[in-house]
Amino acid sequence: MDDAPVLVDIRDGYRVLTLNRPERINAFNLAMHVALRAAIEAATDDSACRAILITGAGRGFCSGQDLNDRLVQPGEFAKKTNTLEEHYNPLIRSLHALPIPVVAAVHGVAAGAGASLALGCDIVLAARSARFIQAFVKIGLIPDAGSTWALPRLVGMARARGLALTGEPIGAEQAADWGLIWKAVDDEALMTEAHALCAGFASAPAVALALTKKALNASLRNDLAAQLELERDLQYQAGATADYAEGVRAFIEKRPPNFARQRK
Ligand code: T3D
After folding, report:
1. What is the DSSP letter of 191?
2. Which of 92, 107, 160, 259 could form a disulfide with 120 if both were Cys (CB 3.0 to 4.6 A apart)?
3. CA separation (Å) from 136 to 63, 140, 168, 222, 242?
4. Is the pLDDT confidence value at 182 over 70?
5. CA–CA gap between residue 139 and residue 135 (Å, rounded)
6. Model pTM?
């Protein structure tokens, strides 16, 4: 279904979810929220799916909330929309909690909640010409869908304030220099690199990836002592897997490891 709000492409070991409202730079409406949630749930339920790649159709990644659905009179907003509670917040929480890496491949523009969505993914690859915009202030809103949480943690408070309070765009190279994203790549290489990354995750040790994600997420609220204890506990779990035994054996035998292809 080419006109579905989210296209799902099942690859060998990972899934590509393409936001598909290109005429509005993939702005979120209700149908896209529902489709994205269903696609993420289906990917999670499939033990052969070892990573998710989120991208956008057409000339940009995502322009945030569809503002055509937000023509309100003063005071009407809270009565008319519960989208944060019902859709954006569960989406960002689910990306954070998923036991598999989620990669965002950003081209064109990621604005408003579209930028928040990218920052909610584990790894953001962006085309060199891409821009990230905390567009909220331009229309009288505050950054949402996790941006006020992610920004200071990724780039520090001074830069978070600059981005959020001005709504000025930041280019992909600067975003990478600041630590907002993982990497800026040549425009024409974006999807090749994103697919290669996901294919790599598909053949990596699944439990180690899941527990690494868990440990890094927990570090944002733990002190050092608590984090060391968590690392010890998670390492016992990773060390008990067949993948660990295989990884060490492969190293000793000087051959590439052959990790399990399915998540348990
Ligand atoms: O409401 C709640 O539930 C709270 C949650 C809020 C979350 C949010 O995301 S709030 C922030 C919403 N997003 C924005 O404010 C961004 C609005 N868009 C823009 O600022 C610009 O369009 C872009 C910077 C993203 C891109 O600029 P440009 O010049 O490259 O493209 P354009 O010409 O502005 O947009 C192309 C088309 O997409 C255009 O339609 P047209 O004229 O060709 O028929 C434009 O209206 C449409 N479009 C772009 N963004 C949105 C949109 N239509 C609806 N909603 C959009 N967000």
Report:
1. H
2. 92
3. 11, 6, 10, 30, 47
4. yes
5. 7
6. 0.97
